[in-house]
Batch of 2 targets.
Target 1
Amino acid sequence: MPRGSKDKYTEKQKDKAEQIERSYERKGVPENEAEARAWATVNKQSGGGNRQGGSGKKKSAEAKQESRSSSAKRAAASRKGVPRADSLERETKDELMKKARSRNISGRSTMRKQELIEALKKAS
């Protein structure tokens, strides 16, 4: 088993890891590698074990879904060969506004979509 105790994981997380592990094993991945990949996937999707009083920011279900959707759109654009800078045009104004806010771009509230794209390109 990969490092660390799995005691703090929920049953749902443990079941998910088992299912992922079996899927990898069916594809011919060695058992220990399959298990490591499965737990890495569970950790990435759920943020690790069900810890009491954990620190850090907690995202709402809506915010998580929005992040997944945005990430999926960027991944699809990358698969089609669209460079990352061009993928900004594919994002909504709200998504661009959030990026501008996170990069602390001044004047963002009055910018149009194209102005936000240009400001984000400059800030990169």
Target 2
Amino acid sequence: MVEGGISHADKTEFTECWRTAWRTPYIMKLALSAGLGGLLFGYDTGVISGALLYIREDFDSVDRKTWLQETIVSMAVAGAIVGAAMGGWINDRFGRKISILIADVLFFFGAIIMAVAPGPWMIILGRIFVGLGVGMASMTAPLYISEASPHRIRGALVSTNGLLITGGQFLSYLINLAFTHVPGTWRWMLGIAGLPALVQFILMLSLPESPRWLFRHGKEDEAKSILGKIYPAEELEDELQALKTSIEQEKQGEHPGESGIFSQLKGAWGNDVVRRGLYAGITVQVAQQFVGINTVMYYSPTIIQFAGFASNKTALALSLITSGLNALGSIVSMCFVDRYGRRRLMIISMIGIISCLVVLSVVFFQASASAPGVSSVETAYFVVLLGLYIIVYSPGMGTVPWIVNSEIYPLKYRGIGGGIAAVSNWSSNLIVSETFLTLTEHLGSAGTFLLFAGFSLIGLIFIFFLVPETKGLQFEEVEKMLQKGYSPFKKEDKTIEDRHPGN
């Protein structure tokens, strides 16, 4: 199974994932049930782009004040920062399952608050509740899935969470379009998110805790029973032995009083493996946001109106195309992430993103320099480029950062490590979403997209130097690699990547 520290994952493809899931449907049950958190994550982050158009029509104060529009959009992100921070600690202290259940409760009540909101202030309150749930779900769902997946198909299964995120965003645009002429418009758009939260809550009550969390907390028999439903008999003992060895090594390095959150943070940063994992995990999460993706997902109807489509309904319909492409890209990621690797997909994705952002900037500049009004040719260019941007973003930078963060930390620090990285993601998201409209007012659309291209170039450089390849490796093998330290120029590390050529 393992030779020279590397699992033979070269032949693992999307079809292998489904063959395994077909033989062992329990794996897919766990992945899809936990992945509903991704659906809620995607829906609640995507739905506001269309709902905002109608909130502005109902409340003059929102229509007049750009900062109020930005706040309504961004308060979910602010809540997500807190939710991710709390979620990291809750994951390690109480388990992955409890974290998902708490997220569902927050989703449900946030949706109800927004649906009955009498004014902008209550919409903002509901967005904060939803954001808390989004933050917890964003790092817990991929973590739960990765710990309940055979390592050879772990990337593809965690990508199902990415597919459900993008699927949730696509669903949000469908719902937005469906309710454009229904009384209550935005109330239905925002309130309907309570239903999948309720469904997931019920499903999760019948599912087990993460087997790796159980093993780490002394419930070895229960963990072995669950792993026995995931791994074939000939692989189970090897997996249990690797897990037992890893936990014994972790416990040898423990110090009394490390159970508190601040002690855990201090311990995490003082651990070489965790710190190097955080360099990689935070890098990919920050880079994911500073390519400007959520300006497209949150404000795409507004951006499309900038390009000359004035009708709310037309802008929403065209935005449906971008979100559909995003979901399609997640399927591409599922097909190739275990074949070509995490690092390679992200580097290719970043190169494509930079190219698209530069060309989008040129198109916007030409449009602003031309006569008043936007020609049909310019709008066609814009829509095509926006679609290309989504296509190159989604399979790489869209899904892979969450996969990397679900598998790069030692078991003891997996919750807190994923939480720290998720906080960096949502903090970056907040900065980008809260400043986008203001940037377009001061720099213009061309200058804003060119700025994102510059940030993307910096992100590409950091990914190249700091992020190792983890495809096909057992969690314990990832720890050993980080213990030695990673460099793209080290012969040993290049050998690891060369053994996964992708064909």
